[in-house]
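=== RUN LOG ===
request id: a7f3
mode: sequence -> structure
chains: 1
length: 242
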Amino acid sequence: MNRLTVNSTFRLLVFSLILAGFLASCNVSRKYTKEASDKWEKDILKFEQLDKSEKDPDNAILFVGSSSIRLWSTLKEDVAPYPVIQRGFGGSKFSDLAVYAKRIVYPHQFSALVIFEANDITGSAADKSPEEIVKLFRNIVRTVRSKYPDQPVFLIEITPTQSRWAVWPTVKQTNQMLKESCSKMHNTYFIETASAYLNKAGEPRKELFIKDMLHQNHDGYIIWGELVKKKLDEMLPKMVRQ
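=== RESULT ===
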């Protein structure tokens, strides 16, 4: 086999691998498109209206994800002096964010992206496997990287809660797999938080949650803010905080 043939074969192999990755990425999100659009299209349209009316600083931290992000009323204060953009929508899942990542993320200039999703494993028949959740997360990061190749991406660990304690072993496994996945991706970081929400007996600290034992109260958000900000301080240059 001559050098020309070898080079052509190598280029074809590289192209095939890239194409296979692209198609796999598309298939992962396409699988959930109808489910996501039926539930969240109106919310995403509201985000797009906000994007037209709001002016955000270029060095902002973009927070995206589920209701824990949406309900974080003290986000700006808790992670100050970082400027923030807040785009949490209801009880969204990794699959929903995979479908809408472009429309939520692409309109913004930001210094870092912070993601939190926690509704793919709830104890229902529709729960996803840890492996599927990791695929979805990687899909989201690939989508982000298509426009923002170098901005840091942070993933907040799924919180242990009393309302979903029965599925915590599976969630814990998922967290570990997501952490490992982050370690293998460019400029992508896992923010560990679970231990701060467990008492000495290894059970969720009920005093950090509202009555539904799923969403955090003010004290819980203070802890979250401290942990998130600590990780941002470690990984981001000081100029972002100005």
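=== NOTES ===
The radius of gyration is 19 Å.
The chain has two domains: 1-30, 33-241.
=== END ===
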